[in-house]
Amino acid sequence: MPVVSAPLAAPPDAALLDRFARGDKSALDDLFRRYRAVAYRVAYRLLGCEADALDAVQDGFIKALTHLDRFRGHSSFKTWLLRIVSNAAFDLGRRRKRQGWNDHPEPASGTERVDLDDHPPPDSGLHRADLRRVIEAALARLPVVQRQTFVLHVDGGLSYREVADALGVSIGTVMSRLFYARQKLKTLLADCVLS
Amino acid sequence: MTSGPTPDLPNPWPVILAAYADGELDPPTREAVERWLATHPASRRELWEQQQLAPGNWHLWNPVDPPLPTEDAWAAVANAIAAAALPEPSTARRDVQPGRPGRAGRWLAVAMGATIALAACILVAGQVFVLPPARAPVVVTQRDDPLSDFIVLPVAVDDDVDVHRVTGNGAGWLLVGVPPLPDRMVLAEVGDVDLEATTPATTWPPDGPPITPRPGDAPMIFAPNPR
Fold first, then answer.
1. What is the DSSP code (8-state) at residue B53?
2. Residues from chain A contacting residue B169 (CB–CB below 8 Å)
3. Which pick of A39, A85, A158, B134 has the fewest CB atoms within 10 Å?
4. How far apart are CA B70 and CA B165, in angstroms?
5. Which chain B residues are Cβ-neighbours of A85 within 8 angstroms?
6. Does B174 touch chain A (CB under 8 A)?
7. Are A134 and A189 in contact (CB under 8 A)?
8. CB B22 to CB A22 under 8 A?
9. What is the pLDDT of residues B168-183, one digit of tens each?
10. Overall average pLDDT of the A75-104 stretch
């Protein structure tokens, strides 16, 4: 008779956090594996660089886990973590900028579209990396609050309610920021992505 | 932001199309939007543009997923997190009944109590025999300072701030300098502030420039308390 083993249910975040608080490293490993990818996606989209994104993920996890007393449980751990990671990404970006780094150069005043001089024409088919670079450049031109809201929703996979909880704003504000962020992105990406 | 074009459509229109594109509306609101879209092609175009950039558009977002780090890179990050954040099992698992300290704890409590009592004695003696009367907080006011009617939390004075540069590209000005404090005193974080628009200051500083947020800049808030 074939033996069929049912998959084990993943432990809830609360159980992992409780075990982590008692010094259980395996619980930390589980939490990290569970959220590392989404945290990295958010940080990468805000920073545009793998090494910086990993730094932001590391900073965010450390801040979140060393300040668990501030996590009230009003939102999910994922929501809380992504807020901290995105803020860590902005902090890191600001420090890099002060040190002379500039991965996302500011557009010249009046520029309305992503400069496509370095990119293939729209009908030639953009390579994956080119397309990513174009979208990152467009995202970098959004106001900070719109970019953070957009990235938490699209790359963080957070619902409007979760984004609102993460940023401490109303759902209406989330909706408004997403609408206007997309309007601006639509203009910036019209030539090369949207058709 | 405009009002809804008909009483049937909930406000705010057309911002609500973003929520429709993301499947975030409740059924009655979604149906109301669909009734409007059925007879208004221009609005359908607006919705299509929102849908193009919604997370549900896998054709756009899947190909632009960030490059994944190697397992070695993940392991390095995990180790750094564990080194910085993992509580010590020995201290974390120590079972100490509240109000029932161990032997060392009792001696520590006695020593702390004696220290506190000694400090209290010195403080009282100093107030009676040595120390001058406590000075009232000094509030510096200037006749032309529009903030003179407010008590200001003195985080730093002008000598403490080292302004490196004043930048401006026509859109606004931003002071950049070295923070005067050895560590950040966080009054509010980026996520706590919802800066939707900027308005040029009209009263202070005189003819002051507007402040324009830049990516990564933390907000600086002046929050005086009226006297």
1. T
2. 106, 109
3. B134
4. 40
5. none
6. no
7. yes
8. no
9. 555 455 555 555 555 5
10. 82
Can you tell me whether residue B166 is helix, strand or coil? strand
Domain spans in chain B, listed from the N-terminal domain onward: 1-92, 101-135, 145-181+198-213+222-227
Show the domains of chain A with their CATH numbers: 11-104 (1.10.1740.10), 115-195 (1.10.10.10)
User: In this complex, is the C-beta atom of B67 within 8 Å of any C-beta atom belonging to chain A?
Assistant: yes
d(CA A70, CA A73): 9
Rounded distance between C-alpha atoms, residue A188 and residue A194, angstroms: 10
What residues of chain A lie within 8 A of the CB of B216, using their CB? 90-91, 93-94, 97, 144
Size of interface A-B (CB pairs under 8 A): 159
Alpha helices in B58-149 (DSSP H): 58-61, 71-85, 89-92, 103-125
Burial class of residue A31, CB neighbours in 10 A (0-12, 13-18, 19+): buried
Alpha-carbon distances, residue B12 vs A148, A173, A184, B1, B9 (angstroms)? 22, 11, 18, 7, 8
> 3-state DSSP call for residue B225?
strand
- Residue A179 reports pLDDT greater than 90: yes
Other residues' Cβ atoms within 10 Å of the Cβ of residue A90: 24
Query: Residue B68 CB: number of other CB atoms within 10 A?
Result: 13
What is the gyration radius of the CA atoms in chain B, in angstroms?
30
Cβ-nearest to B195 among A91, A145, A157: A145
Contact check, Cβ <8 Å, B18/A179: yes
Q: Which of A178-187, B191-200, B214-223 has the lowest mean pLDDT?
A: B214-223
Tokens at residue B160, please? 């403490």
Global confidence as pTM = 0.61
Residues 21-40 of A with CB under 8 A from B: 21-25, 28-29, 32, 36-37, 40
Whether the complex's predicted ipTM surpasses the cut of 0.95: no
Pairwise CB contact (< 8 Å): B49 & A194: yes
Kindly identify which residue of chain A lies nearest to residue B2, measuring between CA atoms: A176
The beta-carbon neighbor of A182 closest among B50, B65, B91 is B50
Amino acid of residue A88: A
